[in-house]
Amino acid sequence: MSSLPILNSPPKAKDRVFDRKGHIPTEYFKDLLFDLEAKGELIVHRIADDNFIEVDTKYGRKKKIPIQHTWHHKSCGQCGHIPGYSTSIFWLHRQLGYEYYDPKDQTSCTAWNYYASSASNSAAQAAIAIRNFAQAYEDGYFPLIHCGTSYGHYKETRNEILHHQKLRDQVRRILDKLGKPLVFPEEIVHYSEWIHVMRDQIKAKQKVDFSKLTVTVHPACHYHKLVVEDAIYDRDLYDGQRTAVVSSLVKSVGANLADYSTWHDCCGFGFRHILVSRDFSRSFATIRKIERMKEEADPDVLITHDTGCVTTLDKSQFATQAHDRKVGIPVLSDAQFAALAMGAHPYKVCQLHWHGVDNKPLMEKMGVDHKKAWAEFEVQVERIKSGEIEFMSWEDAE
Amino acid sequence: MASIYADAKYQDVSEEVKQKLFDEVKADMRWETTLYGCYECGICVASCPSARFYQFSPRVYAQVMAREDIHTFYELLNDSVWDCSQCFSCTRCPRQNNPGGIITIMREVAVNNGMQSAKTALQAYSRIIYKVMSTGTQVAPDMLQPDFFPDWGPDVVKVSENLNNWRRAIPPETMHTTELAWDVSEQTQLELYLIWKLSGNLDQIEILDEGIFMILSEVMEELLEEHGYDLDEIDVVV
Ligand code: SF4
Ligand code: SF4
Questions:
Q1: Same structural domain for residues A47 and A184?
Q2: Tens-digit pLDDT string for chain A (398 aa)
């Protein structure tokens, strides 16, 4: 009779370590990018040697995140409908003392439209991306992408440009007519990656205690599902099994990071749906995300890092109250959350009056006097109305 | 080859038409990295938001395309392709497929061929196409109107009532706009218009929505003329 094998008990989940030892399953875009540069096909826009912090991405490759001298590739959904989102990104740069450029010579990536309608083509999409990149290169600043959709789409565009000579030739012909060079940045960097590498500096300047807050995080699909290997992963966060950005900030500022079962689900944005088929977006956002979080974690706030996610998760909650859905979680971006931690003005900087769900209970839990803050904001609006000032300046806001 | 479904829809549409559309999808340069096979495991369906609320399945796309079933392909192209959320949750596929990517290409083919189902799906949406193509930013503050977003609650009413003053009460200089998300320079807008024309994108819009094409061309012509260009004389270079 053969003896039974002796089994050691497997390590407990908390002691388990996922350490990638095998080869990386995807090609490295940088090899192809620098190869094309060597052949004279394009220019690679590099991050200066003294201007980056290095992080790990999904399969263990390193990624450089620029610290400053960044060209802020804004998001139309943020600037248009959630202006405190972009304002907070700029405010953080100002408070941490990092130089940036907010260009007028930038267009939207137009990818929201592309994913909604497909009423475009690869050459047009690549030309728009590279026109923006060429402009940043000529302006002398490295692109920092505010929008998750732009970030995802530009990585898709990078794959197409790297692999298809025909597309490169088409785009070059377009750019020639514009008088622009074919430039690609050495990294496609999302602003939430910058916040991730700045989290200790943000903590060092924290003024508001967040230890009483429970926070859920929604990772944006186009950040971690589209061209997956480029997203930041960190062993200290969920054992490196889901992206570290956003969650790392929440932990760094001392809030309680709460998990929930549908973290991988999308928000329901749908690109086309959020504009013209919102019954779907509302149902998905409420039933699969907000209610699950409420039931499993009961958070004070939901933090995410993309235009569409903030919009869908926030704005979908109002109408569903009519159906007695369990809603009522304020939704903020990580940039606004970090700014609030550092004492930013909730209305002058974070512009919370553009959000849907009532965020006053959240501010009260943060110890922020929202009545006083609103009165201060109204003073600025009155100055504008009376013609005393044309716009509220950074000095007025800070 | 007939459809595997005896009661397949669109049997009146000729095989040639279906085959042509199918071949256009497969001719797209992105095609080769969207489908490698299929285990029928359903992981894509489990992660798909659209599958929860529509008669929709990314697995079916992988299967139908792999089987080259042009009849069911045509049915998907007409009846289901616009339900996808383009979230790419389906990239979880253990076979490294990208069903969402297949759908992006299929939609582009539907638009390029002026399919009525694409026009219908995008009817209410085309004003957004006009916004992004004419201004360079897709979502603008002046879209926050209660009649466009009646379900977004009272804050939309407040924003629309206070729009001009509230936009001025935002610190970054580029964001004091109401018709655009930020202030796009004239030179940049001009370059964008050239891209629409040179890339053939404007021709796609003409097929999709003639009304939008007309007003867009008018707006473009004005700026291009100011800078010495004649829209009709700019050739598509792709
Ligand atoms: S991209 Fe489309 S098919 Fe894929 S998971 Fe999202 S909704 Fe489903
Ligand atoms: S996840 Fe991939 S292999 Fe599994 S059913 Fe979907 S397409 Fe097929």
A1: yes
A2: 567 877 777 777 777 777 777 788 889 999 999 999 999 999 999 999 999 999 999 998 999 999 999 999 999 999 999 999 999 999 999 999 999 999 999 999 999 999 999 999 999 999 999 999 999 999 999 999 999 999 999 999 999 999 999 999 999 999 999 999 999 999 999 999 999 999 999 999 999 999 999 999 999 999 999 999 999 999 889 988 899 999 999 999 999 999 999 999 999 999 999 999 999 999 999 999 999 999 999 999 999 999 999 999 999 999 999 999 999 999 999 999 999 999 999 999 999 999 999 999 999 999 999 999 999 999 999 999 999 999 999 999 98
Residue type, A290: I
Between residues 118 and 137 of chain B, which touch chain A (CB distance below 8 Å)?
121-122, 124-125, 128-129, 132-133, 136-137
Smallest Cα–Cα separation from B227: which of B189, B200, B182? B189
Q: Are residues A224 and A342 in the same domain?
A: yes
Nearest CA residue ID for atom 8, ligand 2: B38
Residue tagged 């996922």 (tokens): A18
Q: What is the number of the ligand 2 atom nearest to the C-alpha of B45?
A: 6
Q: Which ligand is nearest to the CA of B107?
A: 1
Mutate to test the pocket of ligand 2, among B33, B44, B56, B89 (most ligand atoms within 8 A of CB): B44
Smallest Cα distance from A325 to chain B, Å: 15
Are A351 and A241 found together in one domain? yes
Q: How many domains in chain A?
A: 2
| Proximal ligand: closest to the CA of B54 | 1
Q: Three-state SS for A326?
A: coil
Contacts of B47 in chain A (CB under 8 A): 264-265
What range defines the domain where residue A270 resides? 208-376
- Minimal C-alpha gap between A84 and chain B (Å): 8
Angstrom CA distances, A127 to A176, A223, B10, B194, stand at 11, 22, 38, 10
Domains: count for chain B: 1
- β-pairing, A62-66 with A52-56? antiparallel
Decide: residue A46, CB within 10 A, 0-12 exposed, 13-18 middle, 19+ buried: middle
The pair of three-digit structure tokens given for residue B70, joined into one six-digit string? 């042009």
Q: Nearest-CA residue of chain A relative to B84?
A: A270
Say whether residue A87 is in contact with chain B using an 8 A CB cutoff.
Answer: yes
Nearest CA to ligand 2 atom 4: B41
Domain that holds residue B26: 15-121
The ipTM value here is 0.96
* Helices then strands, each counted (H, E), chain B: 13, 0
Q: How far apart are CA A349 and CA A93, in angstroms?
A: 13
Pick the residue whose CA is nearest to atom 2 on ligand 2: B93
Nearest to B29 among A164, A266, A348 (CB): A164
pTM above 0.90, yes or no: yes
Same domain, A184 and A234: no
**Does some domain include residue B132?**
no
